[in-house]
Amino acid sequence: MKNLIKEVLPPILLKGINKIRFRPSFRLMTDADAESLRRKDAFASEAWLTHTRTKLSKPNNYRQGYMTPHRFVLSMIAGMFSSRAKIVDWGGGMGELYDAVTSHIQDKRNVDYIVVDNSELSSKGVSQRKEIKFVDYGRINLNLVSNADLLFLSGVLQYVDDWKSLLSTISKLTPEYFVICRHLSCDKSEAPIKAVQRITTPAGYAGEAAITFVNRNSISNELERMGYRLLSSMVTDSPVIFGEALDKKLDITESVLIYRRMDNYGTDRFSLPARSLHSRDRSNAIPSGLTPLSETR
Q1: DSSP letters for the chain
Q2: All domains of the chain, ordered by start, with CATH?
Q3: What is the mean pLDDT of each run of 10 residues along the chain (297 residues)?
């Protein structure tokens, strides 16, 4: 039946249906939710592991001359360290972003790429990607991930309850560049907003996860106290659908935040070519929906 549907429906329509079907939904968190979610981890479920393995087996978009905004930004920064690069992908699953992030580095033998994640994803990743070092964050050796040229969180920070503690830990690792991407935030609220996300993948229902919407200014202020200054910030349209309990006026956005250590900040600032931010030219590898913000300090 599935094959019949794929043959009958135009590919573009089928793609649109799948996007709607598998987009996440949210509701405001209750005390009962908080207690229940402490005992479960949707990102260690079999559905999520299967979904991650499936993504690894598919061709990456960058090979077709097109990248999502966060992949483009990460690859440009990583490419500046092509002679010898140490990259830490914190919360990177089975290393799905490796190919895109290292796409501007010709000799991959010069890349020390480390993925930090839960024990289930780390153990599966070891068998999938030999060129990556996988670290279980429950037993992490901080010396292994310190002094990286680039450390990034992709779609991770909003799932960390004590986000300030995570930022503090990362700042002490002193990466040169620290990037927070695919970050969902609510800039209209000074206080963090706690919600519950229902996670459904093409491989099935993975479960629910606690999520915290933190505004970008709070993150930047916290990191500035820790020695990191905002270089650039970009906003993309949020891919989320909200449940009835969430006020749509909250205006949740998805963003990419680029920071650099203050002691190396100087006068040089990482910036993206203006043309690539607005052009549909696939050779520029970034869609027109990306909006650059003048938030450099």
Answers
A1: -HHHHHHHS-HHHHHHHHHHHHS-EEEE--HHHHHHHTT--GGGSHHHHHHHHHHHHSPPGGGGT---HHHHHHHHHHHTTTTSEEEEEET-TTTTTHHHHTTT-S-GGGEEEEEEE-HHHHHHHHHH-TTSEEEEGGG--GGGGSS-SEEEEES-GGG-TTHHHHHHHHHHT--SEEEEEEEEEETT-SS-EEEEEEEEETTEEEEEEEEEE--HHHHHHHHHHTTEEEEEEEEE----EE-TTS-GGG-EEEEEEEEEEGGGTSS------HHHHH---GGG---TT-EEE----
A2: 42-188+215-293 (3.40.50.150)
A3: 50 48 66 71 78 68 60 89 89 88 88 87 72 86 91 93 93 95 86 85 80 92 95 72 52 88 64 36 33 32
